[in-house]
Amino acid sequence: MSWQAYTENLLATGKVDKAAIYSRAGDSLWASSGGLQLAPQEIGKIAAGFDEPSGLQSTGLHVQGQKFMLLRADDRSIYARHDAEGMCCVRTKQTIILAHYPPSVQAGEATKIVEQLADYLIGAQY
């Protein structure tokens, strides 16, 4: 399956309206659906936030110029919200999966499908 198919499958669930897959270092975009593409400094800060979340805790998470308040950050997952919409970022062995969910979707519904995709990719050594 191509990387693009993974992002399109996330959108097809109806729980995510934008998705992207970047390299683990955040230096290259592998796939994007729904128009989600981050500026280099945005994805760079997210990639660094998995190992050292203090920068995200103090300034928030920025996606396409929009500031999201950090809810959770660890070495696997970063969750953030802006009003009723949110972002779920999950790091695997080789990728960072980014997914935006709209106000009509509960955070848990969106994060569950993104985490499941991450588990699948980890199991496939990605």
From TrEMBL:
One of its GO terms (molecular function) is actin monomer binding. Keywords: Actin-binding, Cytoplasm, Cytoskeleton. CDD domains: PROF. GO terms for biological process: mitotic actomyosin contractile ring assembly. It is found in: Cytoplasm, Cytoskeleton. InterPro entries: PFN, PFN_euk, PFN_sf, Profilin_CS. One of its GO terms (cellular component) is cytoskeleton. Its main location: cytoplasm. Gene3D superfamilies: Dynein light chain 2a, cytoplasmic (3.30.450.30). Occurs in many kinds of cells as a complex with monomeric actin in a 1:1 ratio. Belongs to the profilin family. Binds to actin and affects the structure of the cytoskeleton. At high concentrations, profilin prevents the polymerization of actin, whereas it enhances it at low concentrations. This is Profilin. The lineage of its organism: Eukaryota, Fungi, Dikarya, Ascomycota, Saccharomycotina. The gene is PFY1.
